[in-house]
DNA sequence: CCTACCGATCGGTAGG
DNA sequence: CCTACCGATCGGTAGG
């Protein structure tokens, strides 16, 4: 179990980089620019920062095992203060999840741009999904799985969003010249299941992501004869 | 982390607080009639019952989201009383996991018995894994995934056990006449990833399990030419 | 197997 | 964004 470094009244977490304005110092000002009032921008940035921190923790530990205090600590503030930025833990999770799906959809659509061969398109989508699932650096994190510890009402909303996302793959599979005895529905589900759980089986230092995507297509490729 | 011995027949509560049971009584008979003193068998049965209840809950909600009180309640006793039967929540989880892997290995080996064609063998193993993952009625439950909310020290022990289990599939894949440009390691990992997450994507009322197994083999089957 | 409890931790809030 | 706190719940224990 993690020994909590939860701050007592005496020792507080040190804030990373973003400290409140020090004594005599004005509020954060962009380097050469004009001073800004307590703008929406600052708050929005701070909020986005918190979302990314939370996303990373949720992805690492799951919903239940990530506490509000964990998130607050890494963001450099106290648990109660987090509620200045978020409404609740559940709302935070839902927002992260939806933003991640949206970003993922955009990335994949971009990766597909200009490609016409159906297998080539599928491979590009697979590669992009791998990158998304394995990249710990943004909101596009592996949070689509591991919904077991999420409260049911929250989960239902997420699954609906996810279904919409999967339309991309539904279309990709529909374009494939697959043998007639292959169930395209199951085919898509199996493929997505692989990709979504990538952070569970991927091992750094073995095959590169592009090689994995190529292998996946090699396996899943069946030409209608 | 200490791993409990696997066979449950001789397993006993760790704390022999009760007086010695009488002369070896036969197992408890539901409505049989004769009153019985408390024997090992009763305790072992009760313990096994608790393990199955806990397994089901862990599978449903994950480690973290399943409380000792949840388990106790469903077993019909109070939280504190559970510690007469188990040592800790962690030890309980590890024991369940190991027993499930052992049972799964046995079931698959049995399903393979008599089959010689490598593809037929792989398909039989896939089907058996599906049955195991989707059957909510025993210790062979879908608990091999979803390890994210499990404390790291526990998780490490489980992953080691799982690796041993995967040897079965390593052998099955080794026997396949696959094209040379397919990475057998990745091939096995992808296949297991599908099967292990089956309870995440399976939908009752669509394809039957046997049909799914057949489809999986249809997709994963590539003849060396 | 129960009663009665423990210290820790949880998500969240009031008021500044 | 902090201080100070709430009620609920957690895994676990002592003693019967």
UniProtKB/TrEMBL annotation, chains A, B:
Signal peptide (from-to): none
SUPFAM superfamilies, per database record: Homeodomain-like
Highest taxon, organism lineage: Bacteria
InterPro entries to which the protein is assigned, alphabetical: Homeodomain-like_sf, HTH-type_TetR-like_transc_reg, HTH_TetR, KstR2_TetR_C
Record keywords: DNA-binding, Transcription, Transcription regulation
Spans annotated as Disordered: 1-43
Any Pfam family hit: TetR_N
Official protein name in the record: TetR family transcriptional regulator
DNA-binding region: 67-86
HTH tetR-type domain span: 44-104
Organism: Acetobacter senegalensis
GO MF annotations in UniProt: DNA-binding transcription factor activity; transcription cis-regulatory region binding
């Amino acid at each position: 179990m993690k020994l909590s470094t939860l701050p007592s009244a005496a020792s507080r977490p040190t804030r990373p980089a973003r400290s409140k304005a020090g004594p005599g110092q004005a509020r954060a000002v962009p380097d050469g620019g004009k001073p800004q009032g307590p703008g929406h921008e600052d708050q929005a940035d701070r909020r986005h920062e918190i979302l990314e921190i939370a996303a990373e923790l949720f992805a690492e530990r799951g919903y239940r095992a990530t506490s509000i205090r964990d998130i607050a600590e890494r963001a450099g503030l106290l648990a109660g203060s987090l509620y200045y930025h978020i409404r609740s833990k559940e709302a935070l999770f839902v927002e992260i999840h939806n933003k991640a799906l949206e970003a993922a959809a955009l990335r994949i659509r971009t990766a597909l741009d200009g490609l016409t061969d159906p297998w080539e398109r599928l491979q590009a989508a697979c590669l992009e999904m791998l990158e998304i699932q394995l990249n710990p650096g943004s909101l596009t994190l592996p949070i689509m799985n591991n919904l077991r510890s999420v409260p049911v009402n929250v989960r239902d909303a997420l699954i609906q969003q996810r279904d919409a996302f999967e339309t991309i793959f539904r279309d990709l599979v529909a374009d494939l010249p697959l043998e007639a005895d292959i169930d395209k529905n199951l085919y898509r589900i199996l493929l997505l299941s692989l990709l979504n759980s990538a952070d569970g089986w991927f091992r750094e230092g073995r095959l590169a992501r592009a090689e994995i995507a190529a292998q996946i297509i090699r396996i899943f490729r069946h030409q209608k004869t």
